[in-house]
Design a protein that fits this description.
By secondary structure, the chain is α/β, with parallel strands linked by helices. It has 6 helices and 4 strands, in the order E-H-E-H-H-E-H-E-H-H. It has a single domain, classed as 3-Layer(aba) Sandwich (Rossmann fold), CATH 3.40.50. Helix content is about 45%, strand content about 15%. Strand 1, helix 1 and strand 2 form a beta-alpha-beta unit. Helix 1 packs parallel to helix 5. The chain is globular, with a radius of gyration of 13 Å.
């Protein structure tokens, strides 16, 4: 299973609050292990070592904002995401349902309602 990262976008505040809160709530309720970070932008600016670790994981799904922006943030931190195995889900434009489906997989809704 890929490593899951949830960005709360605490400082930029560009992701709709309702979407962020719903995605976070459903990730917690899923029981699946995930990393919640306050803000990838800040982590990039500080060259947080966790970014390099995430880029080297192999398989990672990141719920944040625009994929091109997230990829740039990792590159700016000298931790470029791999071309294969890294997926960025855009909470700025997607619904919470779509984000959860993309991050946890299509079977999540079936499991949740069962």
């Amino acid at each position: 299973m890929p490593r899951i990262v949830y960005c709360h976008c605490a400082y930029a505040q560009v992701v709709p609050k309702a979407v962020k809160e719903e995605v976070l709530r459903r990730l917690v309720e899923s029981g699946v292990a995930f990393d919640a970070v306050a803000d990838l932008c800040e982590m990039s600016a500080k060259r947080d070592p966790m970014m390099k670790q995430l880029s080297q994981e192999g398989s990672v799904k990141i719920a944040a904002c625009y994929p091109r922006a997230v990829k740039w943030l990792f590159s700016a931190a000298d931790a470029p995401l791999p071309l294969a195995g890294a997926e960025v889900v855009n909470m700025r434009v997607e619904t919470a349902d779509r984000v959860i489906d993309a991050v946890l997989g299509e079977g999540f809704k079936q499991t949740e309602s069962a």
